[in-house]
Amino acid sequence: MEQLIADISQKTEIASKQQAEASEKKAFLDVQSVKIAKEKAEADEQLKAAEPAVEAAQAALNEVNQKDLVEVKAMQHPPAAVVDVCTIAFYFFVLNLNDQKDDSWGNVKNKMLADTQILAKLKGYDISKCKNEMSKKAKVGLKALRKSIGEEGDALYTAIKGKSKAAAGLYKWAAATDTYYDIYKEVEPKKIKVAKMTEQKEKADAELKATVEALAELEEQLSVLNSDMKIKKDELDKLLAAQAANEKKLNAAKKLIDGLGSERVRWSHDMEEFKVDKIKLVGDCLTASSFLSYSGPFNYVLRTKMIFDHWKKDLVEKELPNKEDFSLSNFLSSDVQIA
If you average pLDDT over every residue of the chain, what do you get? Predict the structure, then answer.
């Protein structure tokens, strides 16, 4: 029973600790879930803000065909605006920074305009491969382009389109990519943070699940142990009750035996008296029968004188055995009758 109680106490302590750990992990996960949702919502909102520009760039590229690009490539002395736009697009398109060191018109044509997959690559451009240095070069080029033409926004696009349809599409794409990259730089750390937090949350979820499962198993064991303890406790209570009843009976028997012991002494004493009374019974019976036969008409004083002053003396003189402390009331009646 003591071992069972110790086992229950140990498992209860472990269960309490696991319950505390589970509560702590759940609280952490609740906070993490809110943070992840918030960070993800902010990132999604920022990315959504860039969608119109990206969609506009895609739409502009849809208006450009390979033939238009070939015509631009074939220009020996293209307008300065066309060169500037192609160079800006070149900074985003060519991913190797070493290849960008030479941004002459000839290298722009060879590295970008000569690529037969240029439109497909522009439409499927992976913004994550863009570097900060590439964006800086493009921003400088865009600022110079706006200044040289003296227009911005749609007016700038229209002015470039008047010089080259292909260049206008490349401008729209480069400007949108520049905007998109600025947003991406802000959003990407948040996305990385969200991914890391999500990974931590998944790990914590797995740990919480394992803790909850272990806790459930431990609680099941405790339930079995508590059930066993109840059974054993009931058995112990029955044994204790039986022990108490037996002790009560034993005490009663002991008292009875002790009482009988004192009675034995009294009985032994009475036996001795009975032996003496038996010897002296002749004189006592003679005295009692004489009292019953002759003292009826007399009062108490005369009866006492007759018995003790005459009859008892006569018995002694005749040497008939009789009790010295003879009592008529005790001889002729019992204690119950006297009471």
Answer: 83
Contact 144, 151 (CB under 8 A): no
337, pLDDT greater than 70: no
CB 29 within 8 A of CB 126: no
At 335 the pLDDT is: 67
In terms of Cβ atoms closer than 10 Å to its own Cβ (0-12, 13-18, 19+), residue 39 is middle
Rounded average pLDDT over 91-100: 92
Q: Could you give the CA distance from residue 263 to residue 269 in angstroms, rounded to a whole number? A: 10
Contact 68, 166 (CB under 8 A): yes
Q: How confident is the model at residue 2 (pLDDT cuts 50, 70, 90)?
A: low
**Domain 2-218 belongs in CATH node 3.30.565.10:** no
In this prediction, residue 296 has a pLDDT band, given cuts at 50, 70 and 90, of confident
Rounded CA-CA distance 122/119 in Å is 5
Structure-token pair, residue 293: 């036969």
Tell me the three-class secondary structure of 106-151, residue by residue.
Answer: HHHHHHHHCCCCHHHHHHCCCHHHCCHHHHHHHHHHHHHHHHHHCC
Instruction: Reduce the DSSP state of residue 91 to 3 states and report it.
Output: helix
Instruction: State pLDDT tens for residues 227-257.
Output: 777 777 787 788 888 888 888 888 887 787 7
Q: How many residues does the chain have?
A: 339
CA atoms within 13 A on the CB side of 243: 6
Long-range contacts of 147-154 (CB under 8 A, 24+ apart): 148/80, 148/81, 148/84, 149/81
Task: Give CA–CA dist 320/317, Å, rounded.
Answer: 8
Task: Give pLDDT, residue 213.
Answer: 80
From CA 105, how far away is CA 137, in angstroms rounded? 16
Q: Residue ranges of the domains in the chain?
A: 2-218, 272-338
CA distance 38 to 25: 20
Look at 128 and 202; give whichever has higher pLDDT: 128
Residue 339's pLDDT is 57
What token pair was written down for 36?
A: 């992840």
